[in-house]
Specification:
The chain is an alpha/beta fold and 309 residues long. It folds into 2 domains: 204 residues, Spore Coat Polysaccharide Biosynthesis Protein SpsA, Chain A, CATH 3.90.550; 87 residues, no CATH class. Helix content is 46%, strand content 15%. The protein has a 7-stranded mixed β-sheet with strand order 3-2-1-4-8-6-9, sandwiched between helices. Strands 5-10-7 form a 3-stranded mixed β-sheet. Helix 8 runs antiparallel to helix 10 and helix 8 runs parallel beside helix 11. It is globular. The C terminus is likely disordered.
């Protein structure tokens, strides 16, 4: 008999992360689920970790022969799923005991897509104190104020859809090969297909974030900016623009035009070594400058090659 919920977990290099997720799944208030871990090229013996967990829990692995990207991993997992509710889960989440049940319940009420936000957990670094934690709190507050018509914008690694909606929308787009926007693309297509995208505060979930330094955050910002161009080329300018004006805007755009990812990363690494010695406001501005400039640089130069200052 098929379970109600299939949890699809794309993973690469997740051998240390997955046991924490499996412990959280073992504590769920329902056992009416299966979990499929799609290992996107096994570089750390993750398959053995999944096999060990599978002795006691309904967890199994699909191992891809090489790194093929998150979209391929997700499509592989959802194609193998047998449940009627399909839950997408990052391998660094620590869900609360109500998580599976709360993802499943709304799907009894029609064609819906369910979004839970991340509650990012940072190691105690200068980046986390100055920028990461404050921005994370601001992001969640702003997200909950977002109009319902734009909830698809938050489709990410803690979401669920019915099998009916998955079949209507179709697979994740494999054109998104690097970091970012494959989820947003799918969420937008679900919205366009008529799904009611709902953001549920009860599904807010601890996320042991990978972007723990300015350098990592800058790299992700750059690649996300480049992926945004793939989205816009496909769907058009469906997102409201938020231009950055004034002197700050000119600084951001000038930096973005002339600094490639290599240079931005070098500056970010220097910031990670020095921001703790700066006044709080100045340190925050320095990190913001690099993160915002990286996003626009990715949009302007998606191949990562630009002129230098």
């Amino acid at each position: 008999m098929s379970p109600t919920a299939s949890i699809v977990i794309p993973s690469r290099g997740g051998a240390d992360r997955l046991p924490h997720l499996f412990a959280a799944l073992a504590a769920q208030t329902t056992d009416d689920w299966e979990a499929i871990v799609v290992i996107d090229g096994d570089i750390d013996n993750s398959a053995a970790v999944v096999a060990e967990a599978g002795r006691d829990q309904p967890i199994r692995a699909i191992v891809l022969d090489r790194n093929r990207g998150r979209s391929v991993a997700l499509n592989t997992g959802f194609e193998a799923a047998t449940g009627t509710v399909l839950i997408r889960c990052d391998d660094d989440l620590r869900p609360a005991p109500n998580w599976v049940a709360d993802h499943c319940a709304p799907h009894a009420n029609g064609l819906v897509g369910i979004v839970g936000l991340y509650r990012n957990v940072f190691p105690d670094t200068a980046y986390a104190r100055i920028y990461g934690r404050p921005r994370d709190e601001r992001f969640r507050a702003d997200a909950y104020r977002t109009p319902v018509s734009l909830h698809w914008r938050f489709w990410a690694g803690n979401v669920s859809a019915s099998r009916e909606l998955w079949q209507e929308v179709g697979p994740y787009d494999i054109a998104y090969r690097a970091y970012g926007w494959e989820d947003i693309d799918w969420g937008y297509r679900a919205h366009r297909a008529g799904a009611d995208i709902q953001m549920l505060p009860t599904l807010e979930t601890d996320h042991h974030i990978a972007a723990t330094t300015t350098a990592v955050r800058v790299a992700r910002s750059f690649h996300s900016g480049a992926a945004k161009m793939t989205f816009q080329a496909k769907h058009g300018p469906v997102l409201p623009s938020t231009p950055v004006a004034g002197l700050w805007g000119r600084l951001i755009h000038t930096t973005a035009r002339h600094a490639d990812l290599t240079r931005l990363t070098r500056w970010a690494e220097r910031a990670d070594r020095t921001v703790e010695r700066l006044p709080q406001w100045w340190a925050e501005k320095q990190i913001s400058w690099l993160v915002e400039a990286a996003a626009i640089s990715g949009e302007l130069h998606p191949d990562g090659v630009t002129t230098t200052l």
